[in-house]
Predict the structure of Tagaturonate/fructuronate epimerase.
Amino acid sequence: MRLSRFSIGTGDRFGLEGEAQIAAFKELRAHGGEADIVWNKSNREHVIIGSSPADQANAAAASVTNTGWDGKWFVDADHISLKTIDWFLPHCNFFTIDVAETIGRQASAGARAAYLAQAQFLLEKGAAPVPVTQGDIETVADKFLAAVQEAGNTYRYIAARKPKDSFVVELSMDETDAPQTPAQVAAILVAVAAEKIPLSTFAPRFPGKFLKGIDYVGDVAEFLSAFEAETKIVLWAADRLGLPKGFKLSVHTGSDKFKLYKGIHEIVTRLGAGVHLKTAGTTWLEEIVGLAEADGEGLALAKRVYAAAYARIDELTAPYANVVEIDRARLPRPDEVAAWDSKTFVNALRHEPGSQTMQPDMRQLMHVGFKIAAEMGEEYTDALVEYRESVARNVQSNLYARHLLPIILG
């Protein structure tokens, strides 16, 4: 299978926002844009919520049927490994292979020697879109080669159990301490080609910080320079290394990175490239915004979620330690929030470009606080149904106006 030029990982923590998300993609289409929908959900999220990949696939399929959506759509086994893959296999057609645990491990001496020989052509002038040194190749051999081989093992495990041409594969290397350089990305893709992994997308670790639910933290020019260089590299890899046509970069924790969207759009437009953007957790936050905006019992429930998250901050942030940075001194106290009216709560949580009222620490805490809502069970999901108009409007508007529109239409 192949992805289209643009694809968006939407996620849907509780499986009730598919129709509102499709409405955003229909709005995009009405304005001349097109993108694939990718409903992604990780093993960790399923375990926290108590859902399954079957639930995820069924919710997506029901939304497509109910709306008559005729565009391409996928169900993503997000951040999987050989340890967690089996229950995803019957239900997913997009597999995000996460090799974070094997980055830094040593490949065998034989594998290392074979890779070094394969990568020698990168040292030739013009062999890659960026200059590659012997040091770059050695770094990949020592730090990333074993991880690529693990990805190869995972891909072959999937391929042996899925019909041919029935799924797409992404390789995730974004959870590292330091960004890969463009030269290292080129050298990594040589190893990917040697493993014969037909990647549709690759998620490197970009410069800067990609924190949950808030804007990009870092030097925008530095990010865009790396993104452009690495976009040229993935285009080159599809042309020279035999990776699939349409191979593209993937930006993880991509929701709310408003500072970057204009530049990303301009780069992919100029180069004729595509991009995959993951926005998953934003949908959950918009559910809370919608409940709070509805006032009454909706607002009361939103306040309860915040109070519980505030009391359990260490537990909730621990699994996401590398993608949240919360200054506890800036978090509003639950007794303070309890006195807020609907508008004050919404303005503190809703993230619009340039917002002066959004509280980033509160928003990050709520982003990882979906476990609280999961523990509420039907009380929470029934509220989503009761306040459907407000919730769906916020989900659709956020996805279309703040994400699809600037990335795809500019």
